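FW: tagging you since you asked about this chain on Friday. Here's the raw sequence from the shared folder, copied in full. Didn't touch anything.
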Amino acid sequence: MLIEWPANSAGGAVQRRGHGAFTLLELLVVVAVIGLLISILLPALSSARAQARAAKCLANLHVLGQGLALYAADHRDVLPPGRLPKIDDCNAYADILGGRKYRPTFTAMMSVAVNAPPFEDPKPCKTDWDRFGERGDRQNYSYAVYVCPSVLEWTDERNGSYGYNYQFLGNSRLFDSDVVDSYKNWPVQFTWVRYPGRTVAAGDCMGTAAAYPPNDRQPYDVNERPPYEDDLRVAECYGNEGFNLDPPRIDLENGEIAGYNYVPPVRSAADPRHAGNANMLWVDGHANARTLQQLGYQFESDGSIGLDGENLQWSGNGLDVPWTPEFRP
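HL: got it, structure written out here
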């Protein structure tokens, strides 16, 4: 059957507009709606990713907490040191998961208990170079549990993302470099910590950048190291001396500080990298998020972290005291 179009007033056939096409105005409206939806969803997606990274960081700290307890159980109740001391190019060393390692940090010392090799090619001497071109005293972590997912580039064992409450739990720096066992505060026994659920063990650390106003802090550099002791340009970098987490209150004259060999000395502090919170591991193995104020840190007027905070959650015995050689738990 032949269907004919009705005639228009001019006698010609009427042509009906196809319904599958869009006008330019309709396309612009669709594009505008899509753009609006993207602008609404992107911040939410970014926030969700940040929350996922924070959750993964807490999971890492839970694993390290289990490692801390197992390490103490395997070492006559002794907690790990922040890092073994510098004696010579091949000392001090320890056997970690994966091989013998020169001057391992607290995380690497716990690697057998954690059951995760911190380095793919650990080296027993400072002057050895691994297959990635890193020297024996500055190797990069190769297993994710040792690196906070919010700062994935912070892989250097010296400039790490997780710092240890070394002043109170295991400061193995030497009082006298000629006396190889003149440790400042190590060994420290697990049972000496009177309040393990209220004592910081480790957590997110910003390194010695904490000593500077926020606008003066410099980006992280995985292999940054001072060419000489008073080069403060290195101290301003995020993550510098990151394995050493200083407590809020420090006795600068009689006590200890992460950047003790800089002129002037510079402190480290917890890093509120998770939406204003720092993830912290406590000696009893639980982990949670805390603001710097909740941890006892005190801010100077320029935004830098001061030295006169509160150590109630750091000393292990519930007292607000800085570490000095006279400290006893």
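FW: Residues 202 and 231 are 27 Å apart (CA to CA).
HL: agreed, and The beta strands are 93-96, 99-102, 162-164, 171-174, 183-185, 200-204, 278-282, 287-290.
FW: great, closing this out.
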